[in-house]
Amino acid sequence: MKKKTGLEIVDSTYWKWIVNHDYPEDKLTLFKEEVNKDHHGTIGKYLFFSKDRNELIELAKKLLKEYDLYHAKTPASLREGYTEYVLCVYDIAPNLTEEMKQYKTETIKYRYWKSDEDTMKGVN
Questions:
Q1: Is 45:113 a contact under the CB 8 Å cutoff?
Q2: Residue 112 in domain
Q3: Whole-model pTM over 0.70
Q4: φ, ψ for residue 8, nearest 5 deg
Q5: What are the tens digits of pLDDT across the range 11-26?
Q6: Does residue 63 belong to any structural domain of this protein?
Q7: How many CB atoms lie within 10 A of CB 17?
Q8: What is the DSSP letter of 3?
């Protein structure tokens, strides 16, 4: 079976996943090791918000390619009571928190890095 390359958008019930099939194999191995640890080890995500989900998807594509990141997700639909979509761009560790600030625009807000551990524990 031929390995997929490039970026792919995968729809699931609740999320649109943007997957980078060109993610370096050595980083993928490390990513999988962290996922298998309690609370996903050091894995977390950079959080962006916008009313325009398509704008977030385009940002995700850019970030995945530019920084060799594995995947990102945004909701398949806007949750009741919410006015903005979230974009979660996953990384092995918070190595790019400063770099991500530059992607804040008039229509896209950058919030911060949030570990999977905090997410699983319900920390805002």
A1: yes
A2: yes
A3: yes
A4: -140, 140
A5: 999 999 999 999 999 9
A6: yes
A7: 17
A8: P
